[in-house]
Amino acid sequence: MATRARRLSTVAIAAVLGALFSPASGAGATSASITVTASTLTLVNVPSVSFTDTLNGKDQTPTATQAIDVGDATGSGAGWDITATSTTFTTGTVNLATTATTVQSSPTVACDAGATCVTATNNVTYPYTLPAAGSAPTATKVYNATANTGMGDQTVTITWQVAVPASTKAGTYNSTWTISLVSGP
Q: Over the stretch 16-65, which tens digit does the pLDDT of each residue have?
């Protein structure tokens, strides 16, 4: 009986060792997937622009910056355009020239805080003149994101400049600007 117990004990130890050191049965390859749904192309923030100038007897060109926040969550890589148009700067019956507002050099662009983005690659030529008339004319591209750029949340900072001739009458001049975001470069 001791021999038989020893044999059972040896078989039991072999079974335990075999279970510990043999590959797991039932393991196999599997797959996983994620569905990523496109969202929208949005102007998140377009602040107003305000210039200040003090006449000094000479022609002047005051500047002001405008940080335009763009959100491209389309996932398309189609790119986008920021377009702009305006009415003429007017105070009463006195106007600045319809070509008074310009952008002299390419705006800057940076990813928004907390966002990983592909910053826009711009191919608009500068200087740029903001279209202006009594009634706003057709908008033109002031900045764009070429195909496969501009994805994610980013801020485009434009430095606007207004030509104020020395002969300008003092007053508060107002203009209505329309800034739009359009899909495609």
A: 445 555 555 678 899 999 998 889 999 999 999 999 999 999 999 999 99
Separation CA 18–CA 61 (nearest Å): 86
Report if pTM > 0.90.
no
Residue whose tokens read 């070429």: 146
CB 173 within 8 A of CB 91: yes
> CA–CA distance from 96 to each of 18, 89, 100 (Å)?
92, 5, 6
Segment 151-176 shows an average pLDDT of 97
Identify the sign of the CA torsion 134, 49, 164, 52. Answer: positive
- Give me 162's structure tokens: 């207004």
The three state secondary structure string of 109-144 is EEECCCCCCECCCCCCCCCEECCEECCCCCCEEEEE
Spatial distance between the Cα atoms of 87 and 166, rounded to a whole number of angstroms? 22
Cβ pair 83, 177 in contact under 8 A: no
- Cβ distance 80 to 65 under 8 Å? no
Asked whether the CA dihedral 83, 98, 136, 171 is positive or negative, the reply is positive
For the beta carbon of residue 123, count every other beta carbon within 10 angstroms.
Answer: 14
Tell me if residue 150 falls in helix, strand or coil. Answer: coil
Q: CB-based burial of residue 74 (10 Å sphere; 0-12 exposed, 13-18 middle, 19+ buried)? A: middle
Amino acid identity at 168 = T
The 3-state DSSP class for residue 23 equals: coil
